[in-house]
Amino acid sequence: MAISPLAEALPLSKPVPTRLGLAVSFFTFLLLAISSVIGSASAFAQDRQPSTKHFDVEELVDTVLRQNAGIQALQASVFAAEARVTPAGSLSDPRLSAAVAPETLDGLDTPAGRTRGPNVRVEISQEIPWPGTLGLRADAARKDAQAASQDVASLRLRLAAATRTLYADWRYVHRALEINNANQKLLEDLYDVAESRYAAGLGRQHDLLQAAVQRQRLKHQAIKLQRLQSDVRAKINRLMTRSPNAALAPPPALPALGKTRTYDVLRKEAMSSHPVLVRIEKEIAAHKDREALARKAFYPDFKVFGGYNSLWDAAEKRWVVGVGLSLPLDRGKYRAQLNEARAQLMQREFELKDQRSELLSALKRAYAAAEEAEHTINLYEGKLAPLARANLSAARAAYGAGDGSFLDVVTAEEKQLEVDLNLERARTDYFSARAQIARWSGTHMNATHSDTRFNLDMFFQ
Length: 461
Known about the structure:
Largest sheet: 4 strands, antiparallel
Family: Belongs to the outer membrane factor (OMF) (TC 1.B.17) family.
Helix content: 55-70%
Distance between the termini: 41 Å
Protein name: Outer membrane efflux protein
Coiled coil: 335-383
Structural class: alpha+beta
Order of helices and strands: HHEHHHEEEEHHEHHEEHHEEH
Organism: Salinisphaera dokdonensis CL-ES53
Strand order of the largest sheet: 2-5-7-8
Keywords: Coiled coil, Membrane, Transmembrane, Transmembrane helix
CATH topology: Outer membrane efflux proteins (OEP)
């Protein structure tokens, strides 16, 4: 059984506490309870702490890119990769060795009658690889670091697109709930009219039942939208490394976007500078350096050394300097290493081709989705939405005059609800498709924010 901190603080071997002891224990418990409540309230307030900044979708993107833990983790890996450049291009540490002849520890008598100290041998050596090896190692490590930095850029593009898409979904779910609420009020008015007509003997009970069924359907739709709202809120907070239940205010209208550039222009920009492709290109360059390193392995490495050896009687023989070299006799081992380097280089080259194809495919799909959504918006705004409103107005007028059926009104109301939701969905899809175009082309969305800025206190409320 778990023991509370307060119970651990009380000695178990003491007798029954006095009134003073009980009072102290009570006040201690009270202080702990108050501090716990204050701590919880402080954490809750921190999660809901508003800011005085202004805020729009692009500032939401900036907040995500600044606070997301995934980006910080990748940046740390870039720092680690950059730190490996200097060691890769440096010589190995010099090696110092010393030895002594144990039988000479008590000294030796020389022919001249003098006593010599212990015989010792000291040597210091430095290994030196074949010329150009250190430079290639440093170049390969530097290109690995540059490739790692492109991973950060790729993640920033992906997170920016995801944030803009979630922002659009956040806007959509609020508009959908507003449309649902307006239709529920409209249906309540229709129900009141049908009830009045039924009471006056001019309507049918079937009309009331149809209205009741439609009301329940709208309420169920509202519940589904509220669940979607909770999901989107949790995803946005996750990107900002916040609590999933942290409050978010409804956003304003989506910002107006400029004209989309042509697919050919976007394709050229993606092929020339997209971080995903640049990363693989840097990896290819690093593997070319490693292939060159594998070729240099066929050549010997050197070692220079110098030392002192007191075993020699003649003093002029005791100091020595020399040069050594490795003997790469096992050529098969080095050919295998060269083949490995070539295979890894070939792998990256094929990955580059595959990634180019995948990137262009994703860009084309996003571009087609944006074109389709733009066409849908124009269709609904220019034709379907006005027709749906006119159809509902005519059906209500005919029913009020006793010329139409209640089913016609309910059907017209359903059509307008569908048109309104489809229009909002098309606006959301267009904004999301533009966000994906920016991701796969590696460019900006080219958004204009004339009337879309609002206080951050509105968003984190």
